[in-house]
C-alpha cells in the first residue's frame, strides 16, 4: 500500500473546497457525473480509432444511492486510470501552478473550475471520505483504489476490479446527509444531467402495482443523449421542436416559434431559442434560457451571455467556448461571451425578419404576443432597434397591421399639422376611449392601438428618432385640437366670463386625490358633447412611464391632471348658464359693480405710489390700499362661493359632468349610483 500527501503545500485546499468552491453544493454530482461521461466518451473515441478493442456498445454512467452505507457511487465503464495516472491527475491536482493558483484565487474560488480541473474535488464538499476505484483500459492494467478523508493524506492500494472504468464512492458527511434522499438525487440529476451525451442510469423504472409505485427490472435512464439542439435543423420537424419544448417546460404554454442556432465559426454554439407568448402585463419569468457546456447544464442565469431583452426567450444554448464554471465577472469580460451575445442578437433579428417576409399573415397573427419582446429589444439594444424597424408593426383600431414606412404613407397627407409634424393618434384602451376614437375616425383620422406597458417608452424613443413625428393620445384633447391645421382659434368667452363660469362647473367635479380638474371652455358645436374630459399628454405619459418602471416618483405621486372642456354652444350648457343668470344675475351684477369700484380705487392708489420710495408713501394710503385689497379678496370669495353653491345645486350641471366622467370610466361606486338615480329624476 502506498501512502502520501497530495501535491500542494497549502493545507487550505479542503476548507476552500468545502466552503467556497461552489455556492451550491448540489453541483458536486454534476461534476462527478460529467467526469464519468468524459471518461466514457474518451474510451469510445479510442475505440472508433481502433486503439481500444473492447466493447463500448453498452457505455453508460450509473449513479447508486446506498442510504444504509451513507454513500453515493458514480460508476462508469470509461477510460479508467493507472496508478501513475491517479498520482498525476488526482494527487497533484492540476500540478502546473497549483500552489500559486491557491494563493491567488482562494477568495474567488469560482474562478478555479474550468481552468485548473478541480471538478473531482467538489466531492469533498459533501463527503467525509472519497474512494476512487479504477482500472485503466490499457492492456494488463492493475486496478487501484485511492482513498482520502479530506486531509492532504491519501492511500493508494492495488485491488481487484473486473471491468474497465472508474467508481467514485462518496461517503456523505453528517452535515450533508440531506443528499442521502432519493428525491434529492433525482432532482439534481434532472437539473444538471438530463441531456448528457452518455446514458446516465439511476435506479429502476417504476410502475403502479397494488396501489403503490414499485420498481421494475428496467434501468431508469435520466437523460436524453441526443437532444434536439444537437441535431441538424434539416433533420427536425415542427413537432420535434414542440416536443423538445415540452420536455424543457412541461407546464409551459406552447411557444410562437423557434430559432435553431448552429454556429462553428468564429466560435462553437448550438441551441434552440423559443419565443414564448408574453402577455400585456409584462409579468414574465426570466432565467428561462438554460446554458449548457457540451450538454452539461451550467446555469439558467444567462444575463451577460445573451442581450438583456433576449432573456425573455426560452430554450437552450450550448457552447464549449463558455467555461463550465466561472465567476459572473469573468463571463461579463470574456471575449467569446461578447461575440456570442452579439451573434445571438443578430440571429434573432434575422429570423424574425425572415418569418415576416416569408409569411407576413402568420407574423401579424402572432404580433400581439410578440410585440412586448420586440419593443423591449428596441428599447435596450440599438443594433436590434435598427434591424427591428424592418418588421416592427403598428396596429390600428380596425385590426390592420402596418410597417413603420407603410403607416407613414397612410397618414402623412391627412394627419400633418400646421408645423409640418406628422401626428400619430393612438388609443391605450379602445373600449374605454371609444368616444374619442370614434370622434377621430369621423374626422377622417386613423387611430393606432398602443396598449402595452412598454408603449410610453417606445413612443418617446420614436419621437427622439423622428423629430417631425409626434404621438398624441386621442383623449388628450378635443378632436378639433388633436391635429391643429392652422393658427385660427375661436375665442367665444372673455377671460372674465371664464372666471365667472369656472366655479359653477368646478363645484360639481369630484374631489379625488388621484385626479385634479381644470375647467376650460370651447365651442364644440351644438351636436358635440356638452362636456369632454381630456388628459394632459405630457403628464399622463410621465405617470404611465413611472408606473411601468417603478420610479420617477415625482410624477407617479402627483394627481393626474384632467381638463373638463365645457362646450359653450351646447343647449344643455346654455340651459345651465341661463339658470345661473336667472338665479344670480342681480347679485352678480351688484358684486361685479362693487368689485369694479374697489379695483378702480386700488388703481388710483397704485398710480399715486409710482416713482416714490416706500417711506415716501403716506401711511394712510398704505393702510387704505391694504384694506381695499382685503375687501377685494373677500368680495371675490363671496362671488365664487355663490357660483359654487349654485353649481352644486344644479342637477343638469352635475349630470353633464358625470356623463363626461362615465365616458372616461371614472364614475364608480356611490357616485355612479347617485348618477343613475338622478337620471331617473331628470327623465320624469
Could you describe the 3D structure shown?
- The chain is built from 21 helices and 22 strands.
- By secondary structure, it is of the alpha+beta class.
- The protein folds into four domains: 2-221, 2-Layer Sandwich (Heat Shock Protein 90); 228-360, Ribosomal Protein S5, domain 2 (2-Layer Sandwich); 392-482, Rossmann fold (3-Layer(aba) Sandwich), CATH 3.40.50; 495-536 and 545-683, no CATH class.
- It has a nine-stranded mixed sheet, with helices on one face.
- β2 and β3 (71-76) form a beta hairpin.
- α8 (335-358) runs antiparallel to α9 and α8 packs parallel to α10 (382-388).
- It starts with a strand and ends with a helix.
- This is Chaperone protein HtpG.
- Residues 588-645 form a coiled coil.
Give me the secondary-structure category.
alpha+beta
CATH topology of the largest domain: Heat Shock Protein 90
Beta strand %: 15-25%
Distance between the termini: 110 Å
Radius of gyration: 39 Å
Strands, total number? 22
Number of helices: 21
Low-pLDDT segments: 94-102, 104-117, 326-330, 551-556
Query: Which oligomeric form is depicted?
Result: single chain
What's the mean pLDDT score? 83
- State the strand order across the main sheet: 1-6-5-4-7-3-2-8-9
CATH domain class name of the largest domain: Alpha Beta
Number of structurally distinct domains: 4
InterPro entries: HATPase_C_sf, HATPase_dom, Heat_shock_protein_90_CS, HSP90_C, Hsp90_fam, Hsp90_N, Ribosomal_Su5_D2-typ_SF
Protein name: Chaperone protein HtpG
Family: Belongs to the heat shock protein 90 family.
Pfam families: HATPase_c_3, HSP90
